[in-house]
Design a protein that fits this description.
Layout: H1 2-22, H2 27-74, H3 79-105, H4 110-127, H5 134-157
Helix pairs in contact: 2-3, 3-4, 4-5
Length: about 160
């Protein structure tokens, strides 16, 4: 009886050793993983450069919009132009914040994206209300409700809550 238990134990060890030697990654698997890491690193670097370029463009647009605000609208006394410029600068600063946060943490804040969407839609409706039909306004209302719900859910139940 003791002999047979020992024999089964030896057979089990031989089978487990054979299975473990078969599961070792081969040369092709190692090359594939190395290639995937290189591609991930390359495309990550390309994405970082592109986002940095967009950040510079956003900064240039913010400076241009500030120039327009102070030189063209503020001194001319154009209230509508001042409000439009201030809202545009605010949206651009939020976009800059989202891009900067993505570069730093590789995450996009849904809350900020919903906020930007709401402000952009309200700004567009505020300055072009007469150009929209009733059906467009219903669609815009539905979009605002959806973005507001997204903002509320993310604010209330987001994963960053402590």
């Amino acid at each position: 009886m003791v002999y047979s238990k020992k024999k089964r134990h030896v057979k089990r060890n031989l089978v487990s050793k054979k299975a473990s030697s078969d599961s070792k990654p081969g040369v092709l698997h190692s090359i594939r993983r190395m290639w995937e890491k290189q591609l991930d690193s390359f495309f990550g670097s390309v994405l970082t450069v592109l986002i940095a370029a967009v950040l510079v463009i956003v900064l240039v647009v913010i400076v241009k919009e500030l120039y327009q605000l102070f030189i063209l609208h503020l001194f001319a006394g154009s209230t509508v132009g001042v409000i439009d410029s201030v809202l545009t600068i605010f949206l651009e600063m939020k976009l800059f914040q989202v891009l900067l946060h993505y570069l730093r943490d590789h995450r996009i804040e849904v809350e900020v994206i919903a906020e930007v969407g709401i402000i952009a839609i309200v700004k567009e409706v505020m300055f072009n209300l007469t150009t929209f039909s009733a059906m467009h306004l219903f669609g815009i209302s539905a979009l605002l409700i959806a973005l507001g719900a997204l903002f509320f859910i993310e604010k209330r139940y987001g994963c960053d809550q402590h």
